[in-house]
Amino acid sequence: MVLDVKDPQNRKEAIATAAAILQKGGLVAFPTETVYGLGANALNEKAVKSIFAAKGRPADNPLIVHISDREEVLPLVSSFSMTARLLAEKFWPGPLTMVLPVSDAVPKIVTAGLDTVGIRLPANDYARELISAAGVPVAAPSANVSGSPSPTSAEHVYHDLAGKIDLILDGGSCEVGVESTVLDLVGSVPVVLRPGGTPAEDLLRYLPDLVVPGLDVAEVEGIPRAPGMKYRHYAPQARLLLVAGAPEKVAATIRKEIASWQARGSKVAVLASRENAAGYKADVVVVLGERERPQEAAQHLFAALRELDDSEADIILAESTDQSGLGYAVMNRLWKASGGDIIQAR
């Protein structure tokens, strides 16, 4: 079932219907400012198990718990430091997940047995209204088949999960387009576990000792402390090659790669900047956005990867992006989608 929550006449009823499903242990896909989430009552172990079943998600991949008000974090954590309070004041509601010491109230299935839990207060009004109406914290990974590009529209969710979940709330396209930044506040220094919708540059104003790893932050052994750290994510069906380097060299290298792959009989697609798109003689060219506007690339990234899937290309060549601001999150997602398969532009 899909309910349009954008229509003011339907909004209250749609939220109430979705909240009732969550209260009864069902699954609801709902919009956030980052991507669509697949929500269940975070305090209901059986409900949370159904998230993993619907997505085909590994059980050792922890979930983020969503709340509708800052004070709702307190029963979910065993401590809430002054640093966490400051960040909550500055960045909540918003695309920042804080990893904090977990309380006994949170089932171990949510945290994959870890002693920490990721908490987020989303900026999307529909999301907060839903969580508030349900009266429970909501555990929610992205509302897609595990490993595939994240959903930024209700149509993406329907494509992946129709028949597997109880309800999809259609709130339109997501504004940010990449998942939240995940920040670990448990160790001796704060560490970005996953780059996302809150740029590291913004966090550094309040966390001068912040550790921001490289793009391969997502490679870990054992149980990951946050989603997106261990398994291949965000990936289209076709092999994706990420071409990195100076913009002019990237474009020249991609043109050579197109000719080489086409000579072998492959259908070639390119994920391109608007500036370079016209110069590519590929079978399919999908424009991600302007090179100087990483926020545009973030908004379009997952929809573009799904469009490339629909093209049935054999190989995808993706331009690297500037890594400032949201560009770092975009590059992280492309790095993950490529499985680390990178061509250095010559």
From the alpha-carbon coordinates, what is the Rg to the nearest angstrom? 20 Å
Largest sheet entry: 10 strands, mixed
What do we call the CATH homologous superfamily of the largest domain? DHBP synthase
Overall SS class:
alpha/beta
Gross CATH architecture of the largest domain: Alpha-Beta Complex
Instruction: Calculate the terminal CA-CA distance, rounded to whole Å.
Output: 50 Å
Within the CATH hierarchy, at the fold level, what is the topology of the largest domain?
Answer: DHBP synthase
Indicate the low-confidence ranges by residue numbers. 217-221
CATH class annotation of the largest domain: Alpha Beta
- Helix/strand order, N-terminal first: EHEEHEHEHEHEHEEEHEHEEHEHE
Q: Quote the beta fraction.
A: 15-25%
Our count of helices gives 10
Strand order in the largest sheet: 1-8-2-3-7-4-6-5-9-10
Average pLDDT value?
92
Shape: globular
Integer count of domains: 2
Instruction: Report the count of strand segments.
Output: 15
Helix content: 25-40%
